[in-house]
Predict the structure.
Amino acid sequence: MDASKPTKPTRQRWRLLRDERGSIVIEFAMVGPMFLLLVLGILELSLMMFSQAVLDAAARQAARTVRTGQAQTTNNPIQAFSNALCAGLAGIPGLIPCGSVVYNVKTYTNFTAALAAPPPTFFDANGNPNPPVFTPGGPSSYVVVSVLYNRNFITGAISGLLGVVRGSGSGGNWKSTLLTSTVVFQNEPYP
């Protein structure tokens, strides 16, 4: 047998090593999941930022009813504030349900007192929402309006990749994040 001539199994191995059929499938299997996670992460982050912008706009709109005295001069000030907040959230139907938003409206003696005050408590020890605190004050009062929304993620895996470290409810299931909007102002000297 001639040693310089490769044997049949060796030729088949060389042919198999040079064959490039199926390489695209293997490359996609390696890159595809990372690409999918990137796309889902971009979607989740975009929706979260858009929801935050909508929440901020609705909080400012509702706070304006307190600042100008429109809420305080009605028969039911808390309902007037709540209606203004829900009207601001209704611009994009289904994005932020009005029933899922909790808020606090508190009056302080000055801006320094508002800064030194502890943050409002929106939930009790069991994770249930507290009833809203609503003290809008009178003319020239210093007011802090805080609005909170617990936004659920579409995919739970993305929340871990985005660095969400707080779970919702008492189970801490990592499927949501808290979006908060705070407006601090002094009421106008309305009549």
